[in-house]
Amino acid sequence: MQASISAATFKLADQAALSPAQQRLEAQLLTFITAHLNQAQPGLFVIHGDAGTGKSAVLAAAFSQLQARSRDSKPTALQGTDNYLVVNHNEMLKIYKRLAADDPDLRKKDFQKPTPLINRLTKQERQADVVFIDEAHLLLTQPDRYNKFTGQNQLSELIKRSRVVVLVFDTRQVLKLKSYWQANDLQPFLDQYPHQTFNLDQQFRVTGNQQVVDWIDSFGQGHLLPRPTDPNFDFKIFADGQPMYDLIRQKDRHGGLARMVATADFPYVVNHGTWYVTAGSLKLPWDKVNLTDDPWALRPETLNEVGSIYTIQGFDLNYAGVILGPSVGYDEVHDRVIVKPDKYEDQEAFKNRDDLGQLEPLKRAIIFNSINVLMKRGRYGLYLYAVDPVLRRHLLAL
């Protein structure tokens, strides 16, 4: 996904912008949809890939192609099909709707959150033809009264109400127990329905070399590699948050889309005043509830805030200043990065469930997932500050 200051923090890539692998994927997708549209069972097409591998870009490009054929005046196998792209993420939904305005083949109503679409199709007793699901790892896997979802699993409900389902799935981006997916949780669906899978493994967002990508991946597995060097990627570790913020402001002045983000380690209650993130001498407010149609990273005033995983997941920044909060530490005895769920302030992420077995390992996985999401936001630079003094010392010593 390419950064674009004027349009969005990711853009719907045109055919020329897609890599050879992405072009193959787009062609396979449209062939699969055409072949399975009128079969007895729904067809599933699963796209795997880590953060930054261009999953949303190719999904959006293929959906635009699908809608162009659906709305074409010339008769084709896809003409007149009723199709939707759903994402269980408010900020990403805003991006899709914003970009729909610039594409003659797309309508804002083509993009939905999963629960309203499920409820509407159920009420109307009808099936959609094709449903694309971006960030399917964010789909609920239990009922949720807050979201008015009464079923047990949103993916299951969407499959029941569709002829073909195309989903993007990455278990390393699961951020809550109520939408907890493990690597084998898709298997029962694959066993039941005809399917294809495709894996995207080329990193498109982080422009750093393999050293940079390996360093981030290893951190998420608890290991500190030697400090990566890449003349074309700005990787810096800070002893204090204020100089990091000063550099982010400077980068934003020169090229835009530079923002501060943090792990969910600082108290925050929705609609109850202003809550702050602290990083050494730096003190900035958390991101506010965004009631506008503009995504968080595109609003100039958010340069004075700290974004969360829920604000920034799925989006490109040019430069990301990442604050690793108190839940991220270092075990000097075993020489590894550790996470401490008891210090993680996002209690909504850890709402207890009695159907997942031991929750502590899952909670640790969620924190490491959130770190992976945050560290892979910046296309041209990653800046780090660790609140935990032991981890900070080890990072600075690299």
TrEMBL record:
It comes from Lactiplantibacillus garii. It comes from the Bacteria. This is DUF2075 domain-containing protein. InterPro entries: AAA+_ATPase (IPR003593), P-loop_NTPase (IPR027417), SLFN_3-like_DNA/RNA_helicase (IPR018647). The lineage of its organism: Bacteria, Bacillati, Bacillota, Bacilli, Lactobacillales. SUPFAM superfamilies: P-loop containing nucleoside triphosphate hydrolases. Pfam families: SLFN-g3_helicase. Transmembrane segments: none annotated. Gene3D superfamilies: P-loop containing nucleotide triphosphate hydrolases. Residues 41-243 form the AAA+ ATPase domain. Coiled coil: none annotated.
